[in-house]
Amino acid sequence: KGEILEPLDEAGVINAGKKLVKEGVQSVAIVFLHSYMNPVHEIRVKEIFEKYFPDILVSASCEISPEIREYERASTTALNAFAQPTMLAHINRLEEKLGKLGMQSNQLMMQSNGGLSDFQSIKKAPIMSSSSGPIAGVLAGRFIGNSVKSNNLITFDVGGTSTDISIIKDNKINITFKSELEHHPIQIPMVDHSTIGAGGGSIVWIDSGQGLRVGPKSAGAQPGPVCYDMG
Predict the structure, then answer these.
(1) Do residues 194 and 138 lie in contact, with contact meaning Cβ atoms separated by under 8 Å?
(2) Which of 34, 41, 64, 89 has its CA 20 to 30 A from that of 219?
(3) Cis omega (within 30 of 0) for bond into 185
(4) Which residues is 191 bridged to in the sheet?
(5) What is the model's pTM?
(6) DSSP conformational letter for 221
(7) Per-10-residue mean pLDDT for the chain, 231 residues long?
């Protein structure tokens, strides 16, 4: 029911934070068992970290994936924490370069659900854009389908290392709330698609069990997708 049975051990939180600082941790995930019902303890832990350990990035599950099922919520939040330092640095560099170019337009980024979000939101929750590239391909496929008056499509987006496939029926894109990222479950709204290791430059190889494998290693742009104009 979300009732508080024990008060938060704030001293324990601070001690844990000190240990993480000594270990050089850059980013942490906070996941309490029933925070989807009552997030006050997760929020308080985040406040403590922001006050005492401001150099550590914090991902709270009540903000990333406030849904029941703690394993999926924990996995999603941990993946967000893992990606946040890299994504933060990437977006900061992008903002700096756009500023130098004098760009004044709204700065938006594709999300995995097919919508858009501002840079600041993606910095806090990069998991929301984890499959933005393949998702953009699905939206592009629907746009092209509309231009030729076709509402039922199988989109087939071939990149350098993989191929992304999705089904559009009656001009509607399917949304799923359960998917995987590198075999780890994630619990966010995402355009439903499947990825196979068969890109334009994917290398075919034999594994230790003498099985035929395709990708994810790639030869790069030679040969590669036609957009590179290199063979």
Answers:
(1) no
(2) 89
(3) no
(4) 175
(5) 0.86
(6) T
(7) 95 98 98 96 98 98 95 97 97 95 91 95 96 92 95 89 91 94 92 84 89 82 62 52
